[in-house]
Amino acid sequence: MNNPNIPHTRALLIFLSLFLSLATAIQTPLLVQTCKRTSDAALCLSSLSSNPRTPSARDVETLARIELDTISTKTNATVDIIIQLLKNTTDAYMLRAYGSCVDTFGGIVVNRIPQGIAALNSKNYAEAKNQVGLVQSDVRLCFEHFSEKQPFTSGSQLVSRLAVAIAVPTPLLIQTCQRTDDNALCLSSLSSDPRTSSARNVETLALIEISTITAKTNATLDMIDQLFKNVTNADLSRAYGTCIDRFRGIMKNTIPRGIALMISANYFEAKDEIRHIQSDVGICLEQFRETQPFESGAQLMIRLTGVAIGIINLLH
């Protein structure tokens, strides 16, 4: 499938992986040895080999800079597609969603990439990696506006697995996620957050996972609010009203209480509080006889909450 967003997101994987080589000497040929140490050697070789600057590259930093330029090019191509979609839609929600993505992807080109290059130039590799991690977060936030596949995305499956491939998990992350019931989702959701690489304990990972749930809850609630505006059926209106009340309760009460209990090291009660998220989402979904556009986001909330509970279980 010729999807500009696939090489764009996969280029992120390569860029982050290149940093594994920055601290150690690379034997010649530089390109081959470097790409072997990335998560996608074939794409690394093809994307860098096609750039005329690669043959003269003498260090991994230069290759990373070239790959950043590739990300910028693919991001611009993705923005062009989204702008065309924006011009051809009249749906209020889609207008808002596409507009948000245009702003987000534009920010990648104007802010993230230049800041990443500046960090590279100053040899602040940790910050460069952080900036590209933020690019990945931005892309994920755009995808969360949509319940169905769009022309610029390879699907929700890629969204949920991106972080596993773009970052090399720390030993703490690997060991923690292996002890949860959903190792893959644990790795993907935590690896996509730039704070994870500096996490020094399980409690921090649990708090990061809760913040991921918060972001997903916000995105899903926003979608429910938009859908509710177009509902005319009385029963469906009541169902959406129930969901809005439940999701707002999660944002205003459940999550803040859970975080407060975590900070006070009351892990047992924190786990019980966070578990209410699954109950509230379940009550929302029970209101409908047919699948709703926001259901995939709601189901992901249930799974993310399960991961958070699994991590908190390790603390007591």
From TrEMBL:
Pfam family, one: PMEI
Signal peptide positions (record): 1-25
Domain called Pectinesterase inhibitor: residue spans: 26-168, 169-311
Any one GO molecular-function label of the UniProt entry: enzyme inhibitor activity
Keywords: Disulfide bond, Signal
InterPro entries: Invertase/methylesterase_inhib (IPR035513), PCW_Enzyme_Inhibitor (IPR052421), Pectinesterase_inhib_dom (IPR006501)
UniProt key word Signal: yes
Family named by the database record: Belongs to the PMEI family.
Name of the protein this chain belongs to: Pectinesterase inhibitor domain-containing protein
